[in-house]
Amino acid sequence: MTLARLVTPGAGLRRWHRILSDALSRDGVVVELVSREAPQRPAAVALLDELEALLLARRRAGLFDPAPGAATHRTEGQPDWIFDLSGRPEPEPGSVFPVYGGAVGDDARDALLLCGAPARIGLAKKDGDRLLLLAQAQIAIERPGSLAHAREAVATRLVTMIRALARRGTVTPLEVINVAPAGAGAVAGFLARSLAQRARSRLGRLLAYEGHWRIGWRRPQDDGVRERLEWPGAARWTFLADDRKRYYADPLVFVKDGVTHVFCEEYPYATRKGVISWFPLDSSGGPAHAPRVVLEAPVHLSYPFVFEHEGQIWMAPESSGSRSLALYRADPFPDKWVLDRVLVADADLSDATLFEHEGRWWMTATTREDDGSSWDCMSLYAAPSPLGPWRQCGKGPALIDTGAARPAGRVFRRDDGLWRPAQDCAAGYGAGLSLCRIDHLDETGLRQTIARRLGPPPGVRAVGVHTLEAGGGYEFIDLCGWRGKAGA
User: Fold this and answer.
1) Predicted confidence (pLDDT) at residue 115 exceeds the cutoff of 90
2) Sign (positive/negative) of CA torsion 318, 337, 362, 226?
3) pLDDT tens for residues 289-314?
4) 380, 396 contact by CB (below 8 A)
5) Does the structure show a pLDDT above 90 at 486?
6) Which architecture, in CATH terms, is 209-484?
7) What pLDDT does residue 487 have?
8) Does residue 318 contact residue 310 with C-beta atoms inside 8 Å?
9) Where are the alpha helices (DSSP H) in 59-186?
10) Are 47 and 187 in contact (CB under 8 A)?
């Protein structure tokens, strides 16, 4: 039996502390809660919190709202883990505590979030004047213009990381780091940037669609991006036309009888629900016809991963709204699809990508661990066949990294090794790509090295790119930008 002591702020238990306590209990950990006096917020940060509360007018309970129940104290037995979540710069002796860019305490957390630096957090123990780093991650901040939402993103991932550490038991420190000062949060600058960002976004939405995706392709005259690990200097891309009433994204390609078939997400702005559409390329490299809807479901669909197995053609589109991953069979290919089975049930999977390696099938997908972001936690699954049964490798995510977790296209081979394109969401959803070499893959997990990060290709107007695909002698991407609602 594992016993964990959670040290919480004396001002009272918060909802995220209760969520963590309940999650650890479900994991089989006996939890005791004790409180310690916590430091006061700096006056400028307290004022920012009050201003945000007025501006945001939240309609739901926040993770830092008071939680029912009081902190209780156990007297019998020594805890296996002490997790100090009080926010003090000097944590409980012998405890594991959060670190933010190498600094300790709630002020360090707020300083990191206020300055706009990458949200790198960790769990550490004291070793004299140094810190032994036990776990680390770069997490997704989906709303960087709100300190309250950014804090909640941190709290959610601390739940994920503490659960993983408690399940693993004793661990070898990742590295030894010197204690960094908390630094001063630039509250005035953060508030100004936040207000300006909201004003631009509100004005932009009146005039244009934010996050308008479009699909492009080219026929490489030399090595493609997956071989070069960089964009060509001056490439000509062909872009799929749209009527500004919808966007197209997530191009996944299947070649049959010499014809390159492109499946993609079609997102009509009127319905705000994605469907799967298809178009083939003709002999000149242009679309043979406009995209046609080939699959629709009660929930949003996207990322139509198409593959062949045992003489049949299959599609596993993202359907995270149903909390399952369904598999469809072409009957007939390419424009009729029937539900064949559910590959993974009771899981919120995004952008599931299947591949075969050394006689076994593997799947990477991002998951909303502890009801957090779908950008930063990648889970790994394994199966004897793409038809299943699929089993998650380990408990919890195999990787927490907003810069290289979420899949962005098929796994490919390069220099006799496995590579995966991933989304780089550090600067926002779909901001760029990370090309990652898979260094280790088995049922204990996946390790990778980011070889190159890419923003949108040169010569195009775009603020993001989040798919890299190849097939039939073509290379495919999708680009994100603004698209005018009236004539632009």
Assistant:
1) no
2) negative
3) 999 999 999 999 999 999 999 999 99
4) no
5) no
6) 5 Propeller (2.115)
7) 38
8) no
9) 106-115, 147-168
10) yes
